[in-house]
Specification:
Layout lengths: L1 E3 L18 E4 L3 H12 L4 E4 L3 H8 L10 H10 L3 E4 L2 H5 L4 E4 L14 H13 L5 E4 L7 H5 L4 E2 L2 E2 L2 E3 L9 H6 L4 E4 L3 H9 L8 E4 L1 H32 L3 H10 L19 H14 L5 H24 L8 E5 L14 H11 L3 E5 L4 H7 L4 E2 L3 H5 L4 E4 L4 H4 L3 H7 L4 E4 L6 H6 L3 E3 L21
Parallel strand pairs: 1-11, 2-3, 2-5, 3-4, 5-6, 6-9, 10-11, 12-13, 12-15, 13-14, 15-16, 16-17
Antiparallel strand pairs: 7-8
The structure holds uridine-5'-diphosphate-xylopyranose.
Amino acid sequence: MIRSAAFASPKINCVGNARPGPVCVTGAGYVGLVTAVCLADSGIEVRLLDIDRDRLALLARGRAPIHEPMLDELLASVLERGLLRLCDDTADAVRGATVVMIAVGTPPLSDGRADLSQVRAALTSAVACAGSDTVMVIKSTVPPGTTVNLRRLCRHDGRSLPLAVCPEFLSEGSAVKDFRQPPQVVIGGDDAPACRRVAELFAHINAPVLITDPTSAELIKYGVNAFLALKISFINEIAHLCELVGADVETVADGLGADSRIGRAFLGAGLGFGGSCFPKDVRALDQAASYHGQTFELLRAAVEINAQQRSRFVAKVQRALRGNLHGRRIAVLGLAFKPGTDDVRQAASIDVIRHLEDLGADVVATDPVARSTAALELPATRMAADAYECVRGADAVVIVTEWPEYRALDWQRVAGLVRRRIVIDGRNCLDADAVVNAGFTYVSTGRPTRRPAATAQAPRQRIA
Ligand code: UDX
């Protein structure tokens, strides 16, 4: 179903079952790689262009440089089926392509603005090699107004190639699933046939297609991430109030989420948002608003509240250990910014561990997949191979990332390994009854602290 906010509803007509293409995707990063592999898997001939030959060599061996479910298998399959070709030469990758998608990075500049230098360079070099009827598409996350401003780079042989924007809505840890089952496909452009050609690439996906002007499409992308970040900071403020009035934030969140106008997703209280997108996109949107003279107070509040969650959490650990962390051993379970990924960019774990160590704590940390990426940020922090090794002799066990492995821990066994039976759950992800029944004091977010019954039969203390 196509909803068009800009044109009379265009009908996407795919002639027969012929898949469109070939398509060139520029940038084999997180978004470009997933987009290229998933489009190729749908039967489109795709060229994936990148300047990093080491990355291309790794991909050629069927290995993705990111930890994403299904991605390695899909990559190997489309390479074997000859549907994906890896390129390091722009002319080779762009030659004959009907659509060129720019999916290079837009990292934050020091003031929070998005750095568009890679987008401009990739677009300029692709246009120089493109055919006269090639459609250029920006897939990178770019501030509102960017696509309109970059049209000037699309002049080719005296005419302008159509330029559209097609934002991605991929979450780390579920990127392939999110590509195949997106909430919607958003395409922004002022050239109806060009937008239709882009929409045809997603004809195999069962999702509404919204075609808009380019600036609205750009703002939809930022608006989605900013609103989800607002939801998270909102529930964390509610959680703080719950702690003051003795309510239970999970119950409140269930009640809020039951209202279909609100929805339960992204009402998970705890250490707040991290990752490479929410912090970056919220700041970039705030900068874009400021550039146009608007002070977007709500965004600034969301960022401030999010930062507070980390310091509030460390204060909670300090209180649980009677205010003194010096020399205390703290076992930190979870380093990735969220489960399902090895990404620690803007992860709460980095700030929390640095703060605990600054207060004199002896931190031992673990994570199912993110230990090596976290060690680059925390060179002095000891890393344990697994949770049971991590908790040995701990004065407190701290949950920072809600990996399913940690909820499934044998808490009776953990009780026999720790020095003190205290758990502080930064993601409200544990089974509180199981933890308390094993003799632990259970501290979480936005809920009253739970203590073991005086008679709780915790196993005899064995401190190795
Ligand atoms: C996000 C958007 O979901 C995705 O659409 C966009 O394309 C990229 O940014 P991602 O950053 O991968 O995806 O992770 P997401 O699952 O959205 O979580 C973002 C952060 O919010 C994580 O740190 C997570 O721990 C936190 N979070 C999420 C909460 O604190 N509470 C919640 O209820 C949900």
